C-alpha cells in the first residue's frame, strides 16, 4: 500500500486544490452545523469536526434525484435518462463509520442480480477520502460493536490519520492512488507507521459504548410476536429523524410530476417509521402502528440485512441516539432484546 506524509495545516489547501479540478464534497460549517456539501470557491473545508450532522450518503443516494424525463409528443412518449449522469468527484474527509456505510449500501444497490445504475454510477465515479477518528467523537459512538473501527478504511479509497504534526496518508485502492500527486512525495518511515498503529489501538479502546449486536440475530429469528415489541414504541413521534440521519437507511419512494406534456420521475427518501410508507391503495396498512414500524426497523438492521448480506445494517455512528427528540435509544433496544 502506497503511503505519504503531509503537514496537518496543508490539508485544507489540498482539498481546495482538488476542488479546482474536480467536484469535491467536504465538511463545511453551515450556521451551527457541520454538513457535507460541494466545495465552492469561497468555501473553507472544516476538518476540525467531530462528526457531521448529516450522513454523506446523499452523495451516492441523493435525498431527491431525477430518474428520467419524458415528453408526450404526437409520435408518442419520448424518454431521457441523461439527467442523472455522474461526474468525477471526491468525497473528502468522511469519518470511518460513514465510509463503512458505503460498503454496506454497496451490498444492496450493487448485487450480482440487482443493480441500481443511479447509485453505482455515482459510486464508481467518486473517490472517498476518510478521516480517522483518533479520538472517538461522542459517548454515543459504538462502531466497534458493529464491525467498524475508528481508524478503519473499509469503504474508503484513501485514509488520513492524524499522527501529531502530520497526517499519514494511506492509498487503500487503485482509485485512491490516482489522487496521490495532490499529496506530495514525502515518504513514510517506520516511526510514522508505528505511531498510527498505536493511535488505532487507543482509539478502539476508547469506544466504551458496547451493544450485543451480533448476539441478537438468533433471538430475533424466534421473537417476531414477542410482547417485548409493545414496550418500546409508545413515545415514538414517527418523525423519521432516526432514519433520515442514518448512514445506512435506504427506503425510498418514486413519484411522477407532470406539467402539460412534460414529466419527470423522482426518487426521494422515505422512512419505514412513517405511517404512509406501507399504506396500500386499498387503505389497508400491514404496519398500522409504531409497534410494527419499530419492529421492522430493528429487524431490518439486525436480522434481515444479516440474512441477506451477512452484515449488520448499522455503523454505530450514534446519530439516531443523539437526535431522537424523545430519547429512544437503539443501543438500549438491542441490549433489551439480548435478554429475551
Task: Describe the structure using short key phrases.
340 residues, alpha/beta, seven-stranded mixed beta sheet, four-stranded antiparallel beta sheet, 10 helices
Describe the structure.
- With 340 residues, the protein is α/β, with parallel strands linked by helices.
- The chain is built from 10 helices and 11 strands.
- The strands form 2 sheets. The protein has a 7-stranded mixed β-sheet with strand order 1-9-8-7-6-2-3, sandwiched between helices.
- Strand 2 and strand 3 (33-38) form a beta hairpin.
- It starts with a strand and ends with a helix.
Oligomer: single chain
Overall mean pLDDT: 94
Major sheet summary line: 7 strands, mixed
Shape: globular
What is the string of helix and strand elements? EHEEEEEHHEEEHHHHEEHHH
As a percent range, the share of helical residues equals 25-40%
Proportion of residues in β-strands: 15-25%
Provide the gyration radius in Å.
22 Å
Low-confidence stretches: none
Domain count: 2
Count the helices. How many?
10
Class derived from helix and strand content:
alpha/beta
Write down how many β-strands occur, each being a DSSP E stretch of 2 or more residues: 11
Strand order of the largest sheet: 1-9-8-7-6-2-3
**Gap from first CA to last CA:** 45 Å
Amino acid at each position: 500500500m502506497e503511503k505519504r506524509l503531509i503537514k496537518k495545516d496543508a490539508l485544507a489547501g489540498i482539498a481546495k486544490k482538488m476542488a479546482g479540478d474536480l467536484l469535491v464534497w467536504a465538511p463545511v460549517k453551515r450556521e451551527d452545523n457541520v454538513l457535507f456539501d460541494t466545495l465552492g470557491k469561497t468555501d473553507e473545508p472544516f476538518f476540525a469536526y467531530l462528526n457531521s450532522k448529516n450522513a454523506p450518503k446523499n452523495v451516492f443516494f441523493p435525498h431527491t434525484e431525477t430518474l428520467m424525463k419524458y415528453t408526450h409528443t404526437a409520435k408518442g412518449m419520448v424518454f431521457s435518462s441523461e439527467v442523472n449522469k455522474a461526474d468525477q468527484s471526491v468525497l473528502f474527509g468522511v469519518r470511518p463509520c460513514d465510509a463503512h456505510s458505503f460498503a454496506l449500501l454497496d451490498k444492496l444497490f450493487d448485487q450480482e442480480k440487482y443493480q441500481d445504475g443511479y447509485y453505482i454510477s455515482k459510486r464508481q465515479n467518486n473517490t472517498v477520502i476518510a478521516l480517522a477518528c483518533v479520538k472517538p467523537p461522542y459517548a454515543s459512538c459504538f462502531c466497534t460493536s458493529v464491525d467498524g473501527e475508528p481508524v478503519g478504511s473499509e469503504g474508503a479509497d484513501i485514509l488520513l490519520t492524524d499522527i501529531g504534526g502530520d497526517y499519514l496518508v494511506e492509498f487503500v485502492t487503485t482509485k485512491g492512488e490516482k489522487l496521490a500527486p495532490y499529496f506530495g512525495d514525502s515518504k513514510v518511515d517506520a516511526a510514522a507507521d508505528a505511531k498510527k498503529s498505536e493511535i488505532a489501538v487507543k482509539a478502539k479502546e476508547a469506544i466504551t459504548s458496547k451493544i450485543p449486536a451480533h448476539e441478537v440475530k438468533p433471538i430475533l429469528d424466534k421473537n417476531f410476536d414477542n410482547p417485548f415489541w409493545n414496550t418500546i414504541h409508545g413515545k415514538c413521534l414517527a418523525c423519521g429523524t432516526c432514519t433520515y440521519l442514518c448512514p445506512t437507511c435506504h427506503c425510498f419512494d418514486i413519484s411522477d410530476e407532470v406539467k402539460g406534456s412534460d414529466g419527470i420521475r423522482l426518487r426521494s427518501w422515505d422512512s419505514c417509521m412513517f405511517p404512509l410508507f406501507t399504506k396500500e391503495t386499498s387503505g389497508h396498512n400491514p404496519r398500522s402502528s409504531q409497534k410494527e414500524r419499530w419492529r421492522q426497523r430493528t429487524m431490518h438492521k439486525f436480522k434481515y440485512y444479516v440474512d441477506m448480506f451477512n452484515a449488520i445494517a448499522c455503523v454505530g455512528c450514534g446519530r439516531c441516539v443523539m437526535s431522537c427528540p424523545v430519547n429512544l435509544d437503539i443501543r438500549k433496544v438491542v441490549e433489551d432484546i439480548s435478554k429475551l
